[in-house]
Structure formats: structure tokens, C-alpha cells
Amino acid sequence: PVDITNYNAAIAPVSKIYNGVFDEPTLTVRKDDSTPALVKGTDYKVSYVINGNEVEDPVNVGTYTVVIKGIGNYTGELSNLTFTINQKEITADMVTVDTTEKESTGAAIEPEVTVKDGDKVLVEGTDYTVEYTNNVAPGTATVTVKGIGNYKGLVEKTFTITSKYYYVTGVVRYNSGRVIKFAKITLTGTDYLGNS
């Protein structure tokens, strides 16, 4: 068999954005520019290695070493190429948060968050993390979604927390002897902490 150890090899593309499927890059293996390219499956086979582990069809983020091994009439091995899968950006249109107004309860309010990549529902803790800020007291609360694993990027959404505290003010007319007097009264409710 012919040793391919010193053959030339090229790969295209050298990288891609994560999409959850294996898009096989095109390999060209030949002795030199004047000789025909070898045929995958007949003259050589390909595997991808990351962190010492061989992966048949890489789909997850990382940089893989492309290992080309001669078969049939060829022997030897090439491992001087890499193929990189880069993280996909999480964008605002991928994130859905229940942003309807919430009434304060004195406890943290955490509306439901859904993140989708096309039809695929992403998994919290695997694909993204969620953090809530200013989500107890009345005001504007923030939900922060951060990509992890095969995803990157940061998306912020806000929602409003309203207070239970209210005032009702009116004027009461009452008769005191011959003089009609007016008095102003204020009725108060309780705030979100239960104070009257």
C-alpha cells in the first residue's frame, strides 16, 4: 500500500455555526497538485477527535482534529487538519417571557421563560441560564437569558411589578348643628409587605 503520511490535505469549510446537525466538510487528499484526489471510503476513512474522544459525526461546539486514515491501496495517517463548530447566538426573537404585569407578593416573581431555536425548545441549564433581578419590589424587573454550551449571547427582557398599595381620597359632608361642614378622609390599603 501507498503511505499517505506526507500527502497534502485540505478541508472546506474549516468551521461552521452550531445548527444541531452534522454538515460534513469537503476533504481533498492528494499527493500533490498534479495528482488526482483520493476517494473517501475507497482510499481513506475519516474520523473526528476531541479531548481524546473519537466522534463519528460531530454536531456539538468545539474544535475537532480531523484524522484521515489510508485504506484499500493506501496506508498511513494524516491528522494536521481541524474542524471547528462555533456557538450559535441566542437572539431576542428566540426568547419568550411572560411580560404581563405582576402584582407584588413580597416574594421573588419569576415568570416563565421559553427559548426556541426554530422548532427546537432549548433546555435551561444545558443551552442557557436564566437570572432575575429587581423582581421582588414594585417596579421594573429584568430577566436575563445567557447562552451556554452550544449557544452564546445574552438577552434581557423586562416586566412590571405593581404595588397593592393604594389611596382613596374623598370628601364627606356632615351636619354639625346648623353648620354644614366638610372633612377630607383618606382610605389606605396595605402595601406588598403587609404594612397598613
Task: Please provide a brief summary of the model.
The protein is mostly beta strands.
How would you characterize the overall build of this protein?
The protein has 196 residues and is mostly beta strands. 0% of the residues lie in helices and 54% in strands. The chain contains no helices and 20 strands. It has strands at residues 2-3, 8-12, 15-17, 26-30, 44-50, 53-55, 62-70, 74-75, 77-86, 88-89, 95-97, 102-103, 113-117, 120-121, 128-133, 139-147, 151-152, 154-162, 167-176, 179-188. The strands form seven sheets. The chain has a five-stranded mixed β-sheet, with no helix packed on it. A hairpin with a 2-residue loop joins β19 and β20. It is rod-shaped and about 85 Å long. Mean pLDDT is 88; it is low at 188-196.
Order of helices and strands: EEEEEEEEEEEEEEEEEEEE
Measured as a percent range, the helix fraction is under 10%
Q: Can you list the strand order of the major beta sheet?
A: 3-9-7-5-6
Question: Shape from CA axes?
Answer: rod-shaped
- Describe the sheet with the most strands: 5 strands, mixed
Give the strand tally: 20
Question: Structural class, from helix and strand content?
Answer: mainly beta
- The unreliable regions are 188-196
Q: Mind telling me the C-alpha Rg? A: 33 Å
- Distance separating the two termini: 91 Å
Q: What's the rounded overall pLDDT mean? A: 88
Binned strand content: over 45%
Q: How many H/I helices?
A: 0
